[in-house]
């Protein structure tokens, strides 16, 4: 049996063009996610959102997660504010109900089965909302600057300070500079402990200490040079796979 864990990465369904094929609906995610998983020693597979939101989402997601050793809930468009009972801010992007429904279900079921999970940017926000948390819909209104998302399609960089005693601090040390691209942030996060902060008070990481590996960061580690979060996820996934493997007679 291979000890290479399989890591699912949530993705979009977006129109893509290749040669004569124009605007073909395709499952997409930046390849940087795949590359980081592979460099950390895992096998990356994409999880496309379900386009027909059905009442059996949790049953189907459970069947999916039974075949995986870990999950990355990836970055992307804003989570629909209706999911946390907020009025929509003018800056909020068009909702992606396919991703919202699929990823909230993944967040809920993965917690129930204690599957290793890393949330990235939107993924952190999904994980918070899935447990009844709330988001700040336009961070510049709160912090008074655009450092977290300086320009369209342009990653910013800023330091974060980790919270002593957290798993994030154990992995990354007391301070790290991170690539950043988000205009929203987590305000409340039931069931998660704060694990890192930006200098302006923005929550930059959270974790569930009751789970084997359930971390989320607001920044984009797949766009940086630091592999430690991905190595930690793959390591946890490898342990998870070994524990559930059938014992030979």
From TrEMBL:
Q: Does the keyword Hydrolase apply?
A: yes
**PROSITE patterns reported in the protein's UniProt record:** GATASE_TYPE_1
InterPro entries in alphabetical order? Class_I_gatase-like, Peptidase_C26, PuuD-like
Q: Which domain of life is it from?
A: Bacteria
The regions listed as transmembrane in this protein's record are: none
Q: Name one Pfam family in it.
A: Peptidase_C26
The question of whether Cell membrane is a record keyword is answered with: no
What is this protein's record name? Answer: Gamma-glutamyl-gamma-aminobutyrate hydrolase family protein
Signal peptide limits: none
Which keywords annotate this record?
Hydrolase
Please spell out the taxonomic lineage of the organism that makes this protein. Bacteria, Bacillati, Actinomycetota, Actinomycetes, Micrococcales
- Single GO MF descriptor: hydrolase activity
